[in-house]
UniProtKB/TrEMBL annotation:
Source organism: Planococcus glaciei
Family: Belongs to the chromate ion transporter (CHR) (TC 2.A.51) family.
Location in the cell: Cell membrane
This protein's encoding gene: chrA
Name of the protein this chain belongs to: Chromate efflux transporter
Source organism phylogeny: Bacteria, Bacillati, Bacillota, Bacilli, Bacillales
GO molecular function: chromate transmembrane transporter activity
InterPro entries referenced in this protein's UniProt entry, alphabetically: Chr_Tranpt_l_chain, Chromate_transpt
Keywords assigned by UniProt, alphabetized: Cell membrane, Membrane, Transmembrane, Transmembrane helix
Regions crossing the membrane: 81-104, 110-130, 142-175, 195-214, 226-245, 288-311, 323-341, 347-368
Amino acid sequence: MMAKKNYMEILKASTKLGLTSFGGPTAHLGYFREEYVVKRKWLDDKAYADLVALCQFLPGPASSQVGISIGMLRGGIFGGFLSWFGFAMPSVILLVLFALLVTNGSFDSGWIQGLKIVAVAVVAHALMGMGKSLAPDKPRIAIAVGAAAAILLMPTAWAQIGIIVLTGIIGYFLYRKAEAPEAVKLALTFGKKTGLAAWAIFAGLLIGLPLLRPVIESSYYAIFDIFYRVGSIVFGGGHVVLPMLEREVVPNWMSADLFISGYGAAQAVPGPLFTLAGYLGQLMGSGLGVLLAVVAMFLPSFLLVIGTLPFWSIIRTKSGVQAALKGVNAGVVGILLAALYDPVFTSGIRGPLDFAIAIIAFAMLVYFKLAPWIVVLVTAILGAGAYAFLS
């Protein structure tokens, strides 16, 4: 009976957050703290901070992983699923509806141009915030700049993976002597054996899916492989998924315009940016494509959280791990910097008028601190107006 009550509480709290959490991963963490720490008192600030640190350490969407972790602490593995479901599903549904509008021709191309323009402002804003927190000193700024230059010169998915590995090695050598903070012991309903099993499944799928893809000639298999692989290797949160997904789905599955339009629309809805998978899945494979894309995108997050939580108290105290993570995070800033130019700027800005609208959107976000959905709406209207004027 208590378990059922906990499950309903988890679903209710997470759905409320999924309907109201605008503003991206940093804002999500603030909403989570208010709901789970301050209001419901499911955990204290120290444990919450440790969960945030864990999810920054793992690849994948940090805010979603924090929600999954809190759900697991409250209601086991199924509690983690409910926490994710409530948080992610509202934006998945909204983005699938947007994809249907776009493919049915019910969405004017001027509005789409506005969404592409707002993506420029949103990525630039994200880059500013991430740069301050993840590249705060000269060595990490240098890592970020080097990573951006390398990605622009070698725009492939494998180059991005190589850069993440290389920046981790550089970070280890630069910061390995820094002290790691003490960890908080977390109360879990599963142990290290379950954690090891989760790691085995995670690694098996990451290695096995690409190996079997040439043998299994199925578009649905390809969708699952693409989104699982991207969800497994994206460090730095939702915005960094943009360049990796773009290189996987453009131009084989859709045009750059359709891709960037979906990214712009994802800024207007609450919840995690990884739900962009719902939009892309609809364009790539309709209903089954949505299911496969969303499941594959978030499955690595579940496996990584389950696999790491039982070992976190040990990992957290290793200064070498923390040092490598500092390098990886700086490299992620560089990857996002490269993405700001290509595909975001090159696809969204056609001339001075578009750039003027992007500047207005950037100012609304950064200086006037308007809610992202308001900025998206205003920019979409301006884009539609500019398109009508030029036509």
